[in-house]
Amino acid sequence: MTGVWPGSRLRAAEAAAIDAACAAGDPDRYMRVAAQGIATLVLRHLGRGGAQVRRSAVPVIAAPLPQRSQVTALAGSGVAGARIVALVGPGNNGGDGLYALAALARRGAACTAILLAERHHGRGAQALRLAGGRVRMAGTAGAERALAAASVVLDAALGTGARTAGSARGRVMAWPQLPDAAWRIACDLPSGLDAEGEEPGAGGACAGTEVQPVESQPVEPPWVDTTVALGAPSLGLVLGRGRELCGEVHVVPVPGLLDPTLLGEPAVQLLSPNEALDSMLSPRAGDHKYSRGVLGLVAGSPAYPGAAILCAKAALETGVGMLSAFTRGTARLQFGAAVPEAVVSSRDQAPDGPAASRVNAWVLGPGLGESEQDLDAARRVLASGTPAVVDASALAVVQLPALAPVPVESPAPSRPWILTPHAGELRALSERLGLDLPDPARWPLASVKQAARALRCVVLLKGSCTLVATPQGQVFAAASAGPGLAVAGSGDTLAGILGAVLTTHVTRSGAATPQELARWAAAAAVVHGLAGAAAPGPAEGLSAGIRSVLQTR
Ligand SMILES: NC(=O)C1=CN([C@@H]2O[C@H](COP(=O)(O)OP(=O)(O)OC[C@H]3O[C@@H](n4cnc5c(N)ncnc54)[C@H](OP(=O)(O)O)[C@@H]3O)[C@@H](O)[C@H]2O)[C@@H](O)CC1
Ligand SMILES: Nc1ncnc2c1ncn2[C@@H]1O[C@H](COP(=O)(O)OP(=O)(O)O)[C@@H](O)[C@H]1O
Predict the structure, then answer these.
(1) Binding positions for AMP (predicted)?
(2) Which sequence spans correspond to the domains of the chain?
(3) How far is CA 472 from CA 9, 97, 399, 436, 551, in A?
(4) Superfamily name with CATH number, domain 275-392+411-551
(5) How many A from CA of 52 to the centre of ligand 1?
(6) Topology at the third CATH level for domain 2-68+78-162+171-261
(7) What is the pTM of this model?
């Protein structure tokens, strides 16, 4: 897993290492490592023929940096004569850009630094000149020409030192537009994006907002194809506008830069695709359908028959021993015809009828409807204490726990549920129960943590970055899904994947801790994202996407 921290925490941990590097007489030590990481990715891009990355491609967060040996093999191709421009700000982010350009100029690229302010990193600029690169002031004819001809643009204007108008000391910078045709790469984060991405009211920062340059026009942070984060990604890359603007995020490992004792626990832990796939249990040689696990589904209604079908198909593709569906009216016939593997029973059989006796875990909600009869079935299942995914209209039956908030060291949860709201549903839940959460659309991290704590169960907040919080405050995230998932029925598919993951795990291992539930939930969200990338289009195709993703294990 990759830890993600608020920008301020990363800066504080960095500061100590940088002071030590200065005291040792090598103040630019870490900057050169950052520059090498940036140059590596530019070389890889050029070595691939400089093909333009499609903006609709799935953004990958925390993709590992390519091995240097791979890049050395590519380095001969495409670099000589490539026109590379860096927009260089007054601080250390600009220094990263200057050193990266110097490394690329030494490989034969035609490199130009465009200074956006008079002040700049002198040693970095000198290294660039020595390597044969040029340095131009923004707004000059030379700068304009270089920018117009660039095939690669490096955004090194502002990094984690970007300040909001209230606190900046008044330096005015030029803000040229990045050309659309060029491949764009950002040092640390797209300039003007706030790295903080945490708690409401913390220093005026908020998730993914942009900063205002003093006495100048507002900065719209540019979108980029690739972002190179030093040491660890900041929350700003993952939350809010970060997912939209940062493209592929690569983390440059920098041993010694971030002292774990200064850094503390990460605010969020990102699951990688491999970690998620490792959480998907395959059947064992001796398994039979009951030992693999039976998933109970309280879903579908005459008004919404399709959601239950999408959910069931996703669960079956993910892999369960058996699916037992509890639905009603005309939805029963439709469901039975569309999902012949399922055993279909009437809703009032859940969870106490004979058809429910072997159910190991439940999914409640997709297409359930809002009648008292529907909701009562969901209520009865929750009261049974069996693990459950609570989605869509079933969220309306969740109540506050009787006891005070759980102690941090709490063992297995008495409410083994995973709630799966999107931002609107979490807002509605908060209003109904008087939770007084911050707006989940604006403060996803703070709201999901507070909700999990108040409700004493795991909460998965769906979005472009899906966050899963335990009542104890641990947060896992899935940030590798693309916007193709923003399609009706996609949430029902996630509920099915998650239901299958939950069922197979609890059948094999028994009671689960909140941390295990949350990790499985994040794994399901990552697989959901991978399925969306494998089978873009309407939600009906996501089941085929799940199959192709799981075949790669
Ligand atoms: N130190 C190191 O060795 C290493 C540092 N690293 C890199 O450095 C980055 C952090 O460096 P940093 O602290 O210098 O901040 P940076 O983002 O360059 O900006 C500061 C400058 O911008 C100015 N400014 C701010 N806001 C503004 C605004 N709204 N409008 C206009 N101007 C504004 C600000 O002005 P002032 O505060 O003086 O008013 C100051 O001049 C980090 O992201 C990482 O990439 C890595 O290489 C690791 C090694
Ligand atoms: N822009 C996006 N990027 C990545 N994933 C997205 C995006 N928009 C939506 N999703 C995912 O798609 C799913 C939508 O779920 P939901 O809103 O419940 O839809 P529905 O109820 O119509 O099935 C969620 O898993 C969410 O995380």
Answers:
(1) 462-466, 491
(2) 2-68+78-162+171-261, 275-392+411-551
(3) 21, 40, 19, 19, 35
(4) Ribokinase (3.40.1190.20)
(5) 29
(6) Rossmann fold (3.40.50)
(7) 0.89
Mutate which of 10, 171, 185 for ligand 1? The one with the most ligand atoms within 8 Å of its CB, which is 171
Identity of residue 297: L
Which tokens is 416 given? 């083994």
User: Across the chain, which distance is largest between two alpha carbons, in Å?
Assistant: 81
Same topology between domain 2-68+78-162+171-261 and domain 275-392+411-551? no
Report the binding-site residues: 307, 367, 422, 462-466, 491-492
Query: pLDDT tens-digit profile of 379-436?
Result: 999 999 999 999 999 999 999 998 655 555 555 578 999 999 999 999 999 999 999 9
Of 163, 164, 246, the one to substitute when testing ligand 1's pocket (max ligand atoms within 8 A of C-beta) is 163
Q: Comparing C-alpha atoms, which of 526, 538, 415 is closest to residue 485? A: 538
Q: Where are the alpha helices (DSSP H) in 239-364?
A: 242-245, 260-263, 273-278, 289-292, 305-318, 330-338
Most trustworthy range by pLDDT among 53-57, 218-222, 451-455: 451-455
Give the number of the ligand closest to the Cα of residue 211. Answer: 1
Print burial letters for 288-313: b (CB count within 10 Å at least 16), e (below 16): eeeebbbbbbbbbbeebbbbbbbbbb
Task: Look up the ipTM and state it.
Answer: 0.86
Q: Point out the ligand 2 atom lying closest to the alpha carbon of residue 528.
A: 25
188 lines ligand 1 (CB under 6 A): yes
